[in-house]
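Structural prep section.
Before we set up the soaks we want a predicted structure of the protein with 2-acetamido-2-deoxy-beta-D-glucopyranose in place, mainly to decide which crystallisation condition to try first. Input record follows.
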Amino acid sequence: MSKLFHTVYLLIIFSACLTPLNNANSCRSYCGNITIDYPFALQHGCGHPGFRDLLFCINDVLMLHISSGSYKVLNIDYAYQALTLHDPHISTCDTIVLGNKGNGFALEPWRAPYMNPAPDNVFMLIGCSPRSPLFQGFPGKHLPCRNVSGMSCEEYYGCPAWDGLGHNKWAREEFFGSGPPECCAVPYETIKGINLTKLECEGYSSAYSVAPLRVDGPSEWSYGIRVRYSLQGNDEFCGACEATGGTCGYGEDAIRQVCMCGKVNSSSNCDSVGFSSGTRPMAMKVSAVAGLLTYMLLWITINQI
Ligand SMILES: *[C@@H]1O[C@H](CO)[C@@H](O)[C@H](O)[C@H]1NC(C)=O
Ligand SMILES: *[C@@H]1O[C@H](CO)[C@@H](O)[C@H](O)[C@H]1NC(C)=O
Ligand SMILES: *[C@@H]1O[C@H](CO)[C@@H](O)[C@H](O)[C@H]1NC(C)=O
Ligand SMILES: *[C@@H]1O[C@H](CO)[C@@H](O)[C@H](O)[C@H]1NC(C)=O
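Run finished without errors. Recording the tokens verbatim:
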């Protein structure tokens, strides 16, 4: 009799401890060697709704798709909340790509609260028409062109890419007499949308400085687009969801956040889902400990009889 008790109780306790946690973040995934985690996701319904339909994994290459085009994602920095993007038609220190081939950077308006190019990312617009909106509405010699985080066109002109372009220093310095500058550096905030067609520019370069590193010349700059993302507030919903063993996602309306608790979805967190679902790690630990205590009590009682 007592032996049967032992066996049955041990079996119950072990099965409770060993039950796989079927909600052990089913949304986390990988693309190549990049981890895709909240607020991003590759599956619909996973992650934060502000980043839905954004990332795609194609042959182990992570791609980001927004209204201005597709970019390769080189890195996701979750601690600093930044993404590093690459556009094959971006001009660098070695090559200048003209012919309005580049994507630039423009977002769907609803995404703007969630992600934007970093303030220390410089966009250098190349070969813009004198009729460009860039040069309109700025009285006197007040152009929007300026240094961004110590990166400027002045320095960029020193790159080998400019050598074969017949770049004319005098035209640049006297641009109000002889046309606009060949390159105009701006931070994203002043233009809000780098659309080469709309700005009537031939090409662009983009570079960022990884603070606090100060690099010497334009040959040392990191070329690419550095984007900061934000969750608008401290995202208490997902914090509470994950703290109770859930995985964060969003509902069919693509607005409402959803906490996925195993087989059940909750509109708050997994503590509000009935104990009976039995998939929560905390609930399992509690029942395992309770089981063990009951077992010990019974064992002592039986042995005393
Ligand atoms: C990922 O792989 C690429 C080459 O395949 C490498 O350049 C990069 O440093 C790797 N990134 C990480 C975070 O390991
Ligand atoms: C829970 O929500 C996710 C994401 O929207 C969805 O894919 C899944 O089907 C939902 N599950 C249930 C049981 O409603
Ligand atoms: C860029 O500007 C052109 C011309 O104004 C417009 O037709 C196009 O839709 C814009 N592209 C994006 C991605 O906003
Ligand atoms: C931009 O920075 C360079 C070097 O840091 C400096 O020589 C130049 O005067 C600055 N230009 C403007 C417009 O601030």
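Observations: The radius of gyration is 28 Å.
Flagged for discussion at group meeting.
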